[in-house]
Every structure is written in structure tokens, then in C-alpha cells.
């Protein structure tokens, strides 16, 4: 966990500017250096949630809703390019920009809504993975849901390998999905004339509207806007106008390729359902499991259902990586809170697993596809809370400078936003009115009406606030002039605590500690005994390790005094973190010096946790020495 100033709290700090785009001289090599972020974003546009909405749309209405896929893909391309522009120009992700622009109360609500959207996304991925495993191996879906906990560590492995290898892994999964559906389409032999007619806009009935909104929610996903604005910052670029313009142009190119691949996958699913089920009168086939079962007899090959299941697993696995990254971005951006990636992953996955398990236990496996569609509708409802601030930010000439979006792009972006909001609000109000007319429970009716009022009020606030109060912080321009320091107060430490482990680096730690003091400083040398006796008896421990550790600490004190400094020894017992904090507080130290061990794996987790826990328990400065 870490707290930094607004200007230095980089998005995805571990991989921030980790890929240098300034070195390649040839144009194609420079373009290749930018390729990648949009592919991580694109997997969110072909996750298992899309499958449910695309299957229902194709089986119930044939090719008539293909135009919805095309429209949502064009919307996605526009919005993702705006998110990339925000990250490239301002070096802020969407969550960080929101934190700067809106009041704390609004930001808290936006954070909660973003977390709900990510949980809904992860729910779709959990269900897709579980259904895919069930279709491929026959294991119960409930077991498959529980098995998805294991992939929580996949992201950690990929992050250790680096950003480029993570992007390559995602591209490989996208290729598996694309090839699988290309073969499926060849088997299905759809009518291409009817497919062409499907690009003419039409909404047959209210059920088609519900599925269309679900398709839009599954395609234009709010967490992807947070994700893209952060991922583009993994590229290091020169901060001059030509370089920034080139980065924007290359990222639009990257987005166009990646999102068109996602459109092909979504269209292939809908076309497959239309060609195989709608055309044979099986408009009731709206579930992934049922579609899988019907593919073999209708297409006449056993390969079709296998490819279907493999593609489903690949879609779920690829999306689970990007969902975790989005969760990390949202938490760090809104709350300035950074936690261990494995813990963040476990929390995100549990928030998805719990509702899935509850639905399976109460209603059985037959309701899972409806749950998938519902998760996508939730995403669609939350789109406005991500899109509206994004358009405000990239339209702000004061912040964006010469990179502010043109007027025609601004008009188009607001038009897309109002279309999405109109569709979403229409669906929400129709569903609410239908519920209120059939319900006789005054309490639940009150909460439904109150929820509608809060939804509309919050949308209005997010929309109007930037107009009312354009800036809540000092202007940030692309080439801002440095104002320098007003005044620098150099602290004089009177009591410096030094945590030692009696290793080879103690002399280095002590040297840095002494450098922070002066002749009047008292150095408090701390060592924690962690023997079995110390854990059981605490300060009453008198075993060999406790006695020798006290002697070693006294020797250090004597050597420091010989060099003309004041020093005292303080031995702690049992728990390292607890004892260091206790001694520092009891001795009224005003600075703590510790060694930061360069371990990996378990030791990195162990020592890293010790340092973090100590820092967050103390209110004094902590100086970490890399050893």
C-alpha cells in the first residue's frame, strides 16, 4: 500500500513507461512498440458475457441485430481512442482524472460503481470459464466455478514476465478464439445476403431492445475505459508535440485492428446462432450449454462443440487478466490505495464467485445464461458514469492544450453518450414500471423509486458539475513552467531508530542512519528475537539466541559510542512488525531506518509485508535502505 502525491502517483506503477518507444528509428518498428494495449482491452469485448447476449440475439432474431454489434463496435472505437488520448496526453488514467476533478463524495460513488462493473465483468468470466470446463470435461459447473479461484495467480506470473509477454499471451488467446469461430462459420455456411440485410437498423420488439442493450453493455464496457487510459502509459514517449501526436495516431491504429478482431468474434457468435438455430426454428436455444449440445447434430461434426468449448475457456481466461488490472487501476486511482496483486485478485474473484455459487445452489444451472445477460445489462447501465467524465476531460482545452479533441469528435462523442443513456434509461424505467405495476410491497416499491431518483440525480451531477466548476485543482498544462520551492525546512532528527537483523548489511544500514543524525542525536538500535522461546516467553526468554543477540546489539552500541555518537540497545521478542512499532513508539523516535531486502518469491512477500505493516503503523518518516 502506498500514498504518493498526485503528480507522482503513476498508473500501474510496476510497468509504467516500461516499454521504450523512443529508440526505434524505423517507422514500422516504432509502430510495433505501440502495438499491444488495445489487444488487452479488446478481450473485454469478446468475453463470455458477450456470448450469452450474442447467442440470444442470433437464435431469437436471426441476423437482425448484427447492426447493433457494428454500432457498438464503432462506439467502442471512438471511446477507447478518447481513453487512450487521456492517458497519453495527461499521463492520468480515468480514475486519477476523476479524483482530481470531482468532490470526494462523488468520487466515492464513482469508485463503488466502477467496482460493481468490474465484479459484473468478472462474474461473466467466472461463469464462462466454468461452463467451458463443464462442456469440455463434464465436471459440474459448481466445481468449475470454484476451480476458477486457481487462475487468480495467472496474472502474477504474467506480470513477473513483463508487459510484452503478457500482451503476447493475450494475443495468443485471441488467436485461439478467432480461429475456432472461423472454422465454426465454415461449418455453418450462413447466408451472406441475409447477413448484409442485418446491418439495416431495426428493433423488432421490447425483448430485442433488452438484448440489444445487453450487447452494447457487453461490448462498450466501462472498465475498459479505465484500463486503456492506464495501459497506454506503459509506453515511454518523448514529451514533445510531434511525439505525442504520433503516439495518439499509433494507438488509434492499434485500437482499430484489435477492436475489429473483437467485432469479428462477436459477429461470428451471432451469425453461428442465427445460421444454426434461428434458421431451423430453434429460437428457444438461448443458453451456451444448449448451443454447445446442438452444434454437433446440426453441423454434422464432433469438432464443432470442442472448438466452441475451447474458445469459451480462452475468452474467460483472457478476460480475467484484464479485469484484475482494471480493478487495480480503479482502486489506486480513486483511493490512492495499492495492495498486493494476489490479494486484489482474490477479492475480485470472490466478489464474482459468491453470487454465481448462490444462483447455482438456489436456482440450479439453468439460470446461468440469464445471469450472464443480466451482468452485461448492469455494465451498460454504468457506462454513463465512465463516458461522461472521459468526454469532459479530453474536451478541456486548459488541460489538454493543443491535443484537445476537435469539435466534430466532441459532438459525435456526446451523441454516442446520449444515445447510450437514452437506451439505458428507457430499459431501466420500463423494467421498473413493470415491477411497480405487479408489486404490492410498499417497501420494495419505495426502494425502486428511490433508486431511480438517485440514478438520474447522479448522472445529472456527473454531467453538469464540470460545467459549473471547471477546475478543482491548479491547472496542469502540457508545458507548465516550474515554480520551484517556496521554502525548504531541513529536519533535525533527535532520536533515530534503526532496525537490524544482524546480517551482512548492518554496517550499510547504520552508515545511512548516522548520516541522518548529528552529534546530539540518539540512535536506538532494534533487533527482534524470533526463537521458539521468545515466541512463548517474550521478554522472559533467556535462551542462547536471546543472550547472544543482546550481546551483539550491545557491541554495536559500543562501536557507535566510540565514534562519538549516543546509542542505546532495544531487544524485541516474538513478532517482528509488532515489536519494531512498539519500540519506536515507546522510545519516541522521529525517524526509522530499515533495510529493504532484494529477495524474490516468498521472501519478497515476507519482508515486503513487514516493511509495509511497519510504515502504516507509524506516523514518522521511514527510510528504506536497499541492501
UniProtKB/TrEMBL annotation:
TM stretches of this protein: 28-46, 66-88, 108-133, 139-157, 169-188, 208-231, 252-278, 298-325, 346-365, 371-394, 401-423, 443-468
Organism name: Pinibacter aurantiacus
Reported function: H(+)-stimulated, divalent metal cation uptake system.
Protein name per Swiss-Prot or TrEMBL: Divalent metal cation transporter MntH
Keywords per UniProt: Cell membrane, Ion transport, Membrane, Symport, Transmembrane, Transmembrane helix, Transport
Membrane-protein topology: Multi-pass membrane protein
Gene Ontology cellular component annotations, sorted alphabetically: plasma membrane
Taxonomic path: Bacteria, Pseudomonadati, Bacteroidota, Chitinophagia, Chitinophagales
HAMAP family for this protein: NRAMP (MF_00221)
GO biological process: iron ion transmembrane transport
Amino acid at each position: 500500500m502506498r500514498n504518493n502525491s498526485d503528480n507522482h502517483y503513476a498508473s500501474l506503477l510496476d510497468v509504467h513507461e516500461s516499454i521504450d518507444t523512443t529508440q526505434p528509428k524505423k517507422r514500422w518498428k516504432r509502430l510495433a512498440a505501440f502495438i499491444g494495449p488495445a489487444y488487452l482491452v479488446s478481450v473485454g469485448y469478446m468475453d463470455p458475457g458477450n456470448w450469452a447476449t450474442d447467442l440470444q440475439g442470433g437464435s431469437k432474431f436471426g441476423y437482425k441485430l448484427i447492426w447493433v454489434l457494428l454500432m457498438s463496435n464503432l462506439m467502442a472505437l471512438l471511446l477507447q481512442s478518447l481513453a487512450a488520448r487521456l492517458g497519453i496526453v495527461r499521463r492520468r488514467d480515468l480514475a486519477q482524472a476523476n479524483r482530481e476533478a470531482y468532490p470526494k463524495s462523488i468520487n466515492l460513488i464513482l469508485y463503488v460503481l466502477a467496482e460493481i462493473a468490474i465484479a459484473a465483468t468478472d462474474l461473466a468470466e467466472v461463469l464462462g470459464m466454468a461452463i467451458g470446463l463443464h462442456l469440455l470435461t463434464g465436471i459440474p459447473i459448481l466445481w468449475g466455478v470454484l476451480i476458477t479461484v486457481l487462475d487468480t495467480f495467472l496474472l502474477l506470473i504474467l506480470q513477473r514476465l513483463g508487459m510484452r509477454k503478457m500482451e503476447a499471451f493475450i494475443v495468443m488467446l485471441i488467436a485461439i478464439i478467432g480461429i475456432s469461430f472461423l472454422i465454426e462459420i465454415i461449418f455453418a455456411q450462413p447466408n451472406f445476403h441475409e447477413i448484409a440485410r442485418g446491418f439495416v437498423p431495426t428493433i423488432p420488439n421490447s425483448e430485442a431492445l433488452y438484448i440489444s442493450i445487453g450487447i452494447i453493455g457487453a461490448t462498450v464496457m466501462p472498465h475498459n475505459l479505465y484500463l486503456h487510459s492506464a495501459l497506454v502509459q506503459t509506453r515511454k514517449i518523448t514529451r514533445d508535440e510531434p511525439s505525442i501526436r504520433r503516439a495518439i495516431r499509433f494507438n488509434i491504429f492499434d485500437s482499430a485492428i484489435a477492436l475489429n478482431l473483437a467485432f469479428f468474434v462477436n459477429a461470428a457468435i451471432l451469425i453461428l446462432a442465427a445460421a444454426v438455430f434461428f434458421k431451423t426454428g430453434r429460437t428457444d436455444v438461448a443458453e451456451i450449454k444448449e448451443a454447445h449440445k446442438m452444434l454437433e447434430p446440426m453441423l454434422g461434426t464432433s469438432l464443432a462443440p470442442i472448438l466452441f468449448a475451447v474458445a469459451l475457456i480462452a475468452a474467460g481466461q483472457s478476460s480475467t487478466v484484464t479485469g484484475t488490472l482494471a480493478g487495480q487501476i480503479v482502486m489506486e486511482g480513486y483511493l490512492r490505495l495499492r495492495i498486493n496483486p494476489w490479494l486484489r485478485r482474490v477479492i475480485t474473484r470472490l466478489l464474482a464467485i459468491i453470487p454465481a455459487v448462490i444462483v447455482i445452489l438456489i436456482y440450479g444451472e439453468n439460470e446461468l445464461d440469464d445471469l450472464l445477460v443480466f451482468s452485461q445489462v448492469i455494465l451498460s447501465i454504468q457506462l454513463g458514469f465512465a463516458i461522461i467524465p472521459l468526454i469532459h476531460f479530453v474536451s478541456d482545452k486548459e488541460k489538454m492544450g493543443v491535443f484537445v479533441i476537435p469539435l466534430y469528435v466532441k459532438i459525435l462523442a456526446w451523441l454516442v453518450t446520449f444515445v447510450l443513456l437514452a437506451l439505458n434509461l428507457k430499459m431501466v424505467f420500463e423494467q421498473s414500471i413493470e415491477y411497480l405495476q405487479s408489486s404490492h410491497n410498499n417497501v420494495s416499491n419505495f426502494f425502486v423509486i428511490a433508486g431511480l431518483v438517485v440514478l438520474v440525480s447522479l448522472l445529472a451531477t456527473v454531467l453538469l458539475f464540470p460545467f459549473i466548476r471547471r477546475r478543482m485543482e491548479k491547472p496542469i498544462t502540457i508545458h507548465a513552467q516550474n515554480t520551484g520551492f517556496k521554502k525548504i525546512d531541513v529536519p533535525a532528527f533527535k532520536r533515530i531508530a534503526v532496525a537490524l537483523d544482524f546480517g551482512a548489511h548492518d554496517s550499510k544500514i547504520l552508515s545511512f542512519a548516522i548520516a541522518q543524525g548529528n552529534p546530539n542525536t540518539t540512535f536506538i538500535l532494534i533487533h527482534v528475537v524470533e526463537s521458539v522461546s521468545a515466541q512463548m516467553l517474550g521478554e522472559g526468554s533467556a535462551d542462547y539466541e536471546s543472550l547472544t543477540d543482546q550481546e551483539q546489539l550491545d557491541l554495536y552500541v559500543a562501536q557507535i559510542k566510540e565514534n562519538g555518537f549516543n546509542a542505546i540497545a532495544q531487544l524485541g521478542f516474538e513478532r517482528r512488525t509488532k515489536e519494531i512499532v512498539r519500540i519506536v513508539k515507546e522510545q519516541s523516535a522521529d525517524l526509522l531506518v530499515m533495510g529493504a531486502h532484494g529477495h524474490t518469491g516468498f521472501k519478497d512477500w515476507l519482508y515486503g509485508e513487514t516493511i509495509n505493516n511497519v510504515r502504516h503503523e507509524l506516523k514518522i518518516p521511514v527510510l528504506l535502505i536497499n541492501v
